[in-house]
Amino acid sequence: MNAPRLSADERRQQILDVAIDQFGRAGYFGTSMNDIAEAAGVTKPVLYQHFDSKADLYRALLDEVGARMLDLIAKATTEAADGRDRTERGFRAYFLWVADHHHEFTLLFGSSARHDGEFSAQLRRITNDAAEAIAGLIEVDIDSEHRHTIAHGLVGLAEGVSRRLVAVGDDFDPDEIARVVSNLAWAGLRAADR
After folding, report:
1. How would you write the chain as a 3-class SS string?
2. ∠ at Cα 57 (40, 62), nearest 5°?
């Protein structure tokens, strides 16, 4: 196990990147710290220098993956010309993320740990953060409470479509899926406008 010499931050990031694949393939309960150490080319004591436990590593990983997803969507929607363009860009960024990062999607939305009390609150917070970010992008004349409800519905729409695409296992065209889903979402948003 002669891993290249990395700074503490680089090593931590390397472990997180390796853990995404390990947990994404086998889930939380099917992955051990030994699996992660072996895949990262480090010893278990090195893992424990960065993370106190498997649960600590998983929590850090959920935050990392949630932040990556939200960052991609935020960057994609920043330069949108209008609400419709923002909707299309947001869904396109999301479905590209799902297509290119199945393991990250599975970590957040498809793992058995999602229903585990230890992680469910954290995953709800990530979902709420996504809905909060989306609520701020919705340009329809409705009150704040309805805006947040619709934002959660859009998160659920994207998640539900993605679950099916990942479960089927076929490659999919993220641009085509984004076009179809954003058209549906945009029609709904226009209908919600007063």
Report:
1. CCCCCCCHHHHHHHHHHHHHHHHHHHCCCCCCHHHHHHHHCCCHHHHHHHCCCHHHHHHHHHHHHHHHHHHHHHHHHCCCCCHHHHHHHHHHHHHHHHHHCHHHHHHHHHCHHHHCHHHHHHHHHHHHHHHHHHHCCCCCCCCHHHHHHHHHHHHHHHHHHHHHHHHHCCCCCHHHHHHHHHHHHHHHHHHHCC
2. 110
Confidence check: pLDDT of 136 > 90: no
Q: Do 18 and 40 meet the contact criterion of CB atoms below 8 Å apart? A: yes
**What phi and psi values does residue 170 have, to the nearest 5 degrees?**
-80, 155
Which of 110, 133, 6, 18 lies closest to 64 in space, CA to CA?
18
Q: What is the mean pLDDT of residues 72-101?
A: 90
Output the CA angle 150-111-14, nearest 5 degrees.
105
pTM: 0.84
